[in-house]
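Journal club prep — side note

Before the paper discussion, L.F. wants everyone to see what a predicted structure for a comparable chain looks like in token form. Sequence:
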Amino acid sequence: MYHVWRVLCFKIVNEFNLIDNITRDFPLFQANIIKGIGDDCAVWREGDQLRVLTTDSMVEGDHFLKDWFTPEQIGHRFLMSNLSDVASMGATPTFLFISLVLDKATDSEWVQRLYDGMRPICQKHQLSLMGGNITHGQTLSLTATLLGESSDKVIYRGGASVGDIVAVTGDVGSACVARLLLKNGEQPPSELFERLARPMARVEEGTFLKDYVSSMIDISDGVASEARHLAISSQCGVTINAERIPLHPDSVAYEGLLSASLIECALRGGEDYELMFTLSTENWEQLQSVWPFNTRLTAIGSMTLEQEYTLNRSGQKSILPQGFDHLSENINL
């Protein structure tokens, strides 16, 4: 009866409550651990280096469909989702481990092409594939464990102060728009499809930003979810201004074909793999004057004293949505 009760309880909690429930009785034993569970990466010190580690999985039917993507595209977005976590810490990727659960419909040629999609990324970032595991199962599943390093500091979700600006790189919501178009049988315009099939983790931007920002996170689960994470970790509130959220022009052009609004796609859609960060007004002005990348920067909100999570839209304030949750109903597949 005890085990049945535990299973039933887990079915009704969200993703983050579940993590809290199953990890609370696991202490950290090593003295060199700096950050365990609760950020984009775990962090520990080795000599004069800071090491970071992240792991993430993609499951067919939930995170991707073979009918939508080539094996190379699946490999690309799979690896970029892990690189984005390292980027959000301001770290440089170093070592990669990959584990696969292969179903009967997945042959060796498909797997080879999956790895072909990851190879250029590894070469670009000098990321060494060190090992992993392959087994079989009922559903195709991909899991990567990625390590990175920094010689000076890393950036955490916590660290923002009241009055800090909340800003993002690039545009957001595009991956969700492309996904909803595909779901409706529509072919997205090429730039939107690229945002979904071949996202680009902001690794170089992340290492540059760490000298200016007070907190940072990658936008894998939508603007709303990530803004809440930064606020909660920093013991602040947050206000997001909907009209300032940067949207791709093609997203605007295709809004009439979607089952969700563009703002909802940006807030709750996820898989953009842009960076959200906070910084002082002074640092924001300085950052804009020295920013060396073509990637746009947009201020979309601010951290507040009241620990509330607010969406300001056309002068009307409402509660900021929860964002994407892997164990709840979402606007994705």
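L.F.'s comment for the group: DSSP finds eleven helices and 13 strands in the chain. Keep this in mind when we get to the figures.
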